Amino acid sequence: MNIHTHNPIRIAAAVTLFAALTVGAHAADVPQVHVNYAGLNVNTPAGATVLYQRIRGAADLVCGVADSRDLARLSQAKACAAHATAEAVAAVNVSALTGVYEVKTRVAPVTRLAAIR
């Protein structure tokens, strides 16, 4: 198990990278959101659920899910957020978080990433 509770950059990098690729912007032009999970016990269902909610919120924010009324753009933003969330969950690499992700999405992160790519 690979736990980096002191390093929120790993999540922000995954969210930012996919947002940049999806919207065709340069990484420097894309907003970056750091998700802090220091102090959370991400090995428990409660801690993993809180972290999942933070990751999902950051992905929605960076990808602009709430900012679009255009259906095509909204669909693109939702795909961006789904991919960024899967990338972030995989980057954290904690079984409890992966379990929460699988319950919320009904898909394993690796399977979901392969389907999106």
Which sequence of SSEs, written as H and E, runs from N to C? HHHHH
Q: How much of the residues is beta strand, in percent? A: under 5%
The count of helical stretches stands at 5
- Looking at the structure, what is the overall shape? globular
By secondary-structure content and strand pairing, the structural class works out as mainly alpha
Q: What's the helical proportion of residues?
A: 55-70%
The number of distinct β-strands equals: 0
Give the N-terminus to C-terminus distance in angstroms. Answer: 26 Å
Task: Give your account of this protein's structure.
With 117 residues, the protein is mainly alpha-helical. The protein has one domain. It has helices spanning 9-23, 45-63, 71-92, 95-105, 109-116. The longest helix is centred in the last third of the chain and has 22 residues, at 71-92. The chain starts with 8 loop residues before the first helix and ends with a helix.
Summarize the structure.
The protein is an all-alpha fold and 117 residues long. The protein has helices spanning 9-23, 45-63, 71-92, 95-105, 109-116.
SSE layout:
Blueprint (H helix, E strand, L loop, with lengths): L8 H15 L21 H19 L7 H22 L2 H11 L3 H8 L1
Helix pairs in contact: 1-2, 1-3, 2-3, 2-4, 3-5
Question: Which properties best describe this structure?
Answer:
globular; mainly alpha
